[in-house]
Amino acid sequence: MDVDSRLILHFAAQRGPRFDIRFAIVAIRNIKKYNPKYILVDRAYDTELIRKCINEESKAEDQIPLKTRAKIGHYRLKSKNKFNQEIYSRRNNVESIFSVIKRIFNGTNRSISLQLSNKETKLKNIIYNSYRLTQIQ
After folding, report:
1. Which residues pair with 61 in a beta bridge?
2. Which residues partner with 2 through β-bridges?
């Protein structure tokens, strides 16, 4: 999501509870075409692999809070000096987008198959982005 315009740039639907980290690398690779300056994610995504993907592939700076036990890794150690709480605080826009979508669309997919669930999620995101674009203009 773009925290400035509050538009959804990439999404993925999955059936049942799964680790989001599996989809993080794919999402980072898909949004690099927007040339982001920073990529803000929460502490759950604090892995060396994700930080490497953000810094090397998307050429953006990662703004990820360090996990308390994180003591190794080139990008993790480098990010201690580069983490900016003021920039990271803009991540609350992402949480507000989730809240808006859940209020408007009830937050759950009613589709039985994964294929229909993906279509339902895509439709909700398109409708949300259309709604948001009317507010921006």
Report:
1. 38
2. 7
